[in-house]
Queue: 3 jobs
Job 1
Amino acid sequence: MDYYSGYISKLIEELSILPGIGAKTASRLAFYILDMPQEQVEELSQSIIDAKKNVKYCKKCFTLTDQDICPICASKDRDHKTIMVVENTKDMAAYEKVGEYKGVYHVLHGAINPLMGIGQNDIKLKELFERLKDDVDEVIIATNSSVEGEATAMYISKVVKPLGIKISRIASGVPVGGDLECIDNVTLLRALQGRVQI
Amino acid sequence: MDYYSGYISKLIEELSILPGIGAKTASRLAFYILDMPQEQVEELSQSIIDAKKNVKYCKKCFTLTDQDICPICASKDRDHKTIMVVENTKDMAAYEKVGEYKGVYHVLHGAINPLMGIGQNDIKLKELFERLKDDVDEVIIATNSSVEGEATAMYISKVVKPLGIKISRIASGVPVGGDLECIDNVTLLRALQGRVQI
């Protein structure tokens, strides 16, 4: 990196920290940024600072928001007795894009992963159980269909069931448009086990 | 993008401007940035501003540098009578990494590309010809082996030849370690035409 001016090397180094950005991509991005109009560069830099400064956890559901209580938790049109538990804000956004779900969310910010040293106290589980002291009809677990997501789902279900609250897990199966021959065995098995009468 | 806080949407939008960064990658990067420690975020943002503010063209070779005259042009150990013409600073860095070349450079910042409306006045060609008024022994053209790079090389050679300055083009052929059966026809033909006696 000594072939570039210190400022360019520094920029490349900083960009390389980002996930999925290797040295080559970082240098491509750096030279692109140097070529951008001044205002655009300032806007990019400012948006990074602004997002970091203003975005915090919603005090109820722990999604990332710029308000104390996020718009969904604050909305009177949502069913506050149904809580969908997701691993992160992006998963919540995925369901919001669908638009059909009218309940509220709880964002865990991760999943239980003993191998990575992430235990039940490292994600927002305590905060979820705290919420269940209010009037809640159903908890829908929408953690990922990975080993960690399943383990987290299992743990939540163990704690919630004795409380007499209805608990459900989003269905696992063949994705719409999926070609059976391209789908892994576990998914095929799950789809069979979860078959519904038509 | 309405599913996120305005600050997050803005950050995603700004990151999407960068080349090769689509909506999905931009949102992955944005959430990663939100998760980074405060100082690291500030450093990233500052490095963008610093690079844009301090990096300019070297007054001699037009590479990107933070000095008036870049370290290579200022060096007494380099052969200032040999000029290698490259399309951009990254290409210059590629040759500097090899470390064998002892001459200086001239960075065009592009190549002639009529389809994209880039003519001979849109890249640093005038500035190259200006430099040739000094005592220059050889001009080595190291533009890319693309249609635009070749057209630029041809144009430079046409202008420089009448001046009685030695002009050369870096060799085109099979890359070291390249498998003949995987190499395109034009390269194979070039390699044959450019064969050297052993």
Note: Chain B has a mean pLDDT of 90.
Job 2
Amino acid sequence: MVWDAWGIPSEHAPLPEKIRTLLAQVFGVSGESVTRRDEGSVPLRTSALSQAHLAGLSTVVGPDQVRTDHRARLLHAGGKSTPDLLRRRLDGPQDAPDAVLFPADHDQVLAVLEYCTEQRIAVVPFGGGTSVVGGVDPARGAFDAVVTLDLRRLDSLTDLDPVSGTATLGAGLTGPQAEKLLAAHGLSLGHFPQSFEFASIGGFAATRSSGQASAGFGRFDDMIQRLRVATPGGTLDLGRAPASAAGPDLRELFSGSEGTLGVITAVTLRVHPVPATVGYQAWSFPDFGAGAAALRSVVQAGAAPTVLRLSDEAETGLNLARAGDIGGNPVTGCLAITTIEGSAAHVEARGAEAAALLTAAGGTALGEQAARDWEHGRFAAPYLRDALLDVGILCETLETATSWSNLAELKAKVTAALTDSLAGQGTPPLVMCHISHTYPTGASLYFTVVAKQLDDPIAQWHTAKHAVGDAIAAAGGTITHHHAVGADHRPWMTGEIGELGVRVLRAVKQAVDPAGILNPGKLIP
Amino acid sequence: MVWDAWGIPSEHAPLPEKIRTLLAQVFGVSGESVTRRDEGSVPLRTSALSQAHLAGLSTVVGPDQVRTDHRARLLHAGGKSTPDLLRRRLDGPQDAPDAVLFPADHDQVLAVLEYCTEQRIAVVPFGGGTSVVGGVDPARGAFDAVVTLDLRRLDSLTDLDPVSGTATLGAGLTGPQAEKLLAAHGLSLGHFPQSFEFASIGGFAATRSSGQASAGFGRFDDMIQRLRVATPGGTLDLGRAPASAAGPDLRELFSGSEGTLGVITAVTLRVHPVPATVGYQAWSFPDFGAGAAALRSVVQAGAAPTVLRLSDEAETGLNLARAGDIGGNPVTGCLAITTIEGSAAHVEARGAEAAALLTAAGGTALGEQAARDWEHGRFAAPYLRDALLDVGILCETLETATSWSNLAELKAKVTAALTDSLAGQGTPPLVMCHISHTYPTGASLYFTVVAKQLDDPIAQWHTAKHAVGDAIAAAGGTITHHHAVGADHRPWMTGEIGELGVRVLRAVKQAVDPAGILNPGKLIP
């Protein structure tokens, strides 16, 4: 992953001319890309680690695996939120970890935590570096130095159990690496968040990730059978059965712990055979409310497809425009995408049941193509964001979830908060939304907002983000459905779990990380 | 619920003559029932509460709601495990709480906890009193006195949201009370554990209960949307959305906390329309292995029925004998029960998909009757246990869970441990087993063991229980899939979650219950 944008350079592309023209018309931007800085010329803050510390860390993980070079530090400077990327575009020194460590295994992670506890060095666990909430910022907290612990060498598939459908995967495996290892055995995890191509197994667990096929295969936390966690206090091996009544489920305490309570080093996950058949079907609904009710009916009936999403009117229009359908056969209303994956019999049975429910709820089947188009382009949006940022457009996403009965109000409140805040700053936005994940009792809302950048786009977005965070909290939504908390959502955590909930988290942290070295400034207020 | 047996007197019945004859033949017992003690003549340990304490507690919950009379104390003397019931049959004083409190609402529970923290009085939260693991024993721990907090007055349905399919239920509602309140709105919870008729909503949450329809409607913890918990440290309101990435899921810390971390006072649960249709189908498989593989295939395909269970050969024989089929049409092999509940379309679609998979896996459809018979008698087994205990038969159940690949070995090890331990004591048992709950990655095993009682049946069972607990741990099972930990499974908790896991639980307890008044001696080693 490049240091100042999403993904790999070969996928970077300037905006097509017609989009530049559109942006000029709508937002009054010139459409000219800025020139980004040369990686080698970016100043970094000076490493605060002493030679003694570097020698000590080298003893733990090996001298080749303690990196303090400019490139290694720059590539671990933080995540990929829009403010992160805007900060990378600023002149002046970039924040960066004082060293990057590449431990080989669980025991080395344990030893690093022990050393850093003794020496009072902050530790930031790092998977794919795709956080969009400041979750991997190299913050020092109360310490003089911070090291980032890159887990990419924990990349093994172990303990495959095809009968039970479980596989133990190293925390450092990326989504594609994990799928490739599983595919060699005819298996798949089926976890496809937008960060799939770069994010890691450990990161998925640490952030309660949720993939685009969550209606069928579940959230990542649903898939977790066992967790292995290294903490300054020792090792936790959690999960002895598919389900248990042996007290609180401690997996659920470390799932979503975002590196503040321990370093997840291996995850045993539910896997399934690579689907023999995938059925694609796009649907149109007259409006968002009708579409949401239709999705609700199919999920509540226990007939959910594997992928189930619904774009609102604004996103539907833009998606179809991007797919090249401008001037073609216009589809009004809202577009829904379904895929159903599994055996031919399952796809047929579930497809018929879901289709009947969606049709009864006012849906019109559009055929396969729009669903296939969506799948084809589903990891591309972050590249588009980079191209937009380069031409002076502010583009960011955010998400929340609530009950079905509160969904329309939450959507309206979030849209209003974004619109009011940005319009109030003189940059009226375009706000699009889709239902990204569905549950019997509610759904998530995923928003994309686009506006013209002000001279200080970081402050501009900070204002809007705080307005929308407050609006989400006031409207009864969760501050994050699948992006996690990191540094950016921390101001809303006390509202989310209460003062006593925060005290509980602090008590757990004190038990496993008494020195407080793990990922300071994240998650726990 | 009567004090010394399960359930209500009108359901108590002596064993049928043919079963007495069978027991005489197999186990050499006379078949004559013992005469149980008169409730009023049972000596209780003297209440350790001072008049000042009783006055103080009366101020909190009202004088009528602090009960120290013989009957109230006796009815809260503990749960309903076989050792519990055998202890009730012993001469000598019974253990009992020093008082029983009946708080009216959440705030009164909070005030009781505050008072008992100040006065150093242990508190045992009490729902239906159906624990079979010593979870509601009136243990004083390090304190001089213990009060039992009976939550039956927290019996309201509030915040019904039929669109989202959620309902907030008071912790003290029993299963039937909750279903009745929901049925008035055309809704159902669908949580039917064997304790259903007496156990409470709060108890289900506190113990991670799992009902007989878990394949369709999920475990109780799956149903939980929000939890309200009163602790000595204050109130927790947990759960803001159907799913969230806002850090660890603290609901999962208080679900299964068994009254040691707080008192659950209200639970918001996922509910569904009362099923319009129920499809019943019984199946026969040549043997347990074939049946287990069949259940696995249907669950892993995402085509699980609502109820899905499989009896082993021994249980199949006995169940059919009990159903009056002796001498009728003999069914060899293993009996599986399925029900599919929902709309007619769902029952038809899911039924066809499940039937095809079960048939492909070697199952023979037996028609509806055995499934209906099972449903009709599904809450009756504890009454049968009482009748067996009365004629000198030891009868107890226990359960565990593991992955599909480990299921046969775990079953064999548990059966061997029970058989060896009891045969070694001169009382060879009959051991029966069924798969009670299924998951894509594994299943639970529910064992029933029957043997002749020795002169000290409590010690006899204690020996067997410890042997089988060790066998479960050694074979990789969880010490409990749905009975919870209480006092009886506590010796295996450190093995289950590790030393550090125990330290985490203790840290949480210290944060919410610094004086340690809540349910001493349970769950946390």
Note: Chain B has a mean pLDDT of 95.
Job 3
Amino acid sequence: MAGYPPGSGYGYGAPPPAAYPVPPGYRSPFAALVPSAFPPGTDPSLMSCFQMADQDGSGFIDDMELQRALSSYNQTFSLRTVHLLMYLFTNTNTRKIGPKEFTSVFYSLQNWRGIFERYDSDRSGKIDAYELREALLSLGFSVSPIVLELLVSKYDKSSGIYKAVEYDNFIECCLSVKGLTEKFKEKDIAYSGSATFTYEAFMLTVLPFLIA
Amino acid sequence: MAGYPPGSGYGYGAPPPAAYPVPPGYRSPFAALVPSAFPPGTDPSLMSCFQMADQDGSGFIDDMELQRALSSYNQTFSLRTVHLLMYLFTNTNTRKIGPKEFTSVFYSLQNWRGIFERYDSDRSGKIDAYELREALLSLGFSVSPIVLELLVSKYDKSSGIYKAVEYDNFIECCLSVKGLTEKFKEKDIAYSGSATFTYEAFMLTVLPFLIA
């Protein structure tokens, strides 16, 4: 933590509303169980997209359906990334999302795509460590050089000499940093920069981020 | 934690020596940087196995070499599992192991294989939730029903109606539970059943367990 003022380590006070257009209540544990409604003012094309993806008209989209729906937006995502998305936007392991969560996922991905493209200034389809740091900062996450190095070494799947992170791995990186930071904050009630976990809480916090 | 006496949640006082034949000092952060020696009394066939795997005679085995070496023992492991193995047995991300770490890996896997076979009493190649609980207990880890359910849902890669965990996923499950429990214990200095992390420590603890 050398060089990091207490409490500043993960963007306390960073401006989240623009970065996370998240409808109120989306983290309810029942979010994925009760069919939700589209927020007022939702783009009609987004509604059609949801209805196309929801092939059995159940009001829910499962993991395979979400993977197909997202891929049709000129993006490819592993089922692993899709599971992590579903976990973080429903806070459950049910692997089903309704209209409300679909809308959140859609706008978050749109936002992250914009940030990725802004920092991928040479249009290489990759961002390097410095650009990743800037991208995470613009999302409200300030990570130390050591964490940054770990992230880049984790999410660089190329075998090039220069470390760089491609779009789908960038999304997985954002999801992990966002999700872990939120879980940490939930435990850091006093905003002290430290969080205490029982063994049970620690395992239940961390395991969902492992292979999904 | 309901129903779990304080401090008993992860096998405090469980008998580890037989379960983990770990040579002293294997967790040195330099373990993977300085070529190590085989512990006294190492099985000569294990030494030959190491030398066969170490094709360039560097004194180290890298991730691809370890994957090949372990597969020759009638086991298949994903590169992901191999990376997790290397991380946990060297405590570094260098992805190279020497003779000492190779020996630890070999004997741990042999031990885990034995435990898996003991609990896979019908020789189905899979163990169910109850058997997984017993297997983890015999390794010194007592997990709650909720954690157990999460583990089984994570590590069951089959699409069967009955949840069950195959051998390679069992190993990944053991590695994750063992690794996370050890990291937790390192922070739970007072053996209170609770551990406090700074944000930096939390991220550096958890991120290595994510996709490797």
Note: Strands of chain A lie at 61-62, 96-97, 126-127, 165-166, 194-198.
